[in-house]
Write a structure and sequence with these properties.
Length: 99
């Protein structure tokens, strides 16, 4: 009986200690930016009411989306781009999944 209780306790602790995937933000990929300027292009994404841009070619490996199915709600971890057009709200998407 003690052995069963001990195994149950260990199993419960292992389940509770498993780290679930955590995402910092929820956003909506709106569509492609078709503007022609030095800091234009990429895709628009709305994160908590602020519109940013990102490059589809720089998304994490394994994540894809179909332009015909936009807008698309996603969860993501991201940071601000620090090179190039940083004043144009460009971001790096570090981790992403469809919601």
């Amino acid at each position: 009986m003690k052995a069963k209780f001990f195994l149950l306790l260990i199993s419960l602790l292992l389940i509770l200690s498993c780290e679930k995937e955590k995402y910092e933000s929820t956003g909506i990929i709106i569509g492609a930016d078709m503007s022609l300027c030095a800091c234009c292009g990429g895709y628009f994404i709305d994160i908590t009411g602020t519109q940013y841009r990102f490059e589809k070619s720089e998304l994490p490996t394994g994540f894809t989306f179909d332009d015909n199915l936009l807008p698309l709600t996603i969860e993501l971890n991201w940071d601000s781009k620090t090179d190039g057009c940083k004043d144009s709200n460009w971001i790096n998407i570090l981790k992403i999944r469809k919601k």
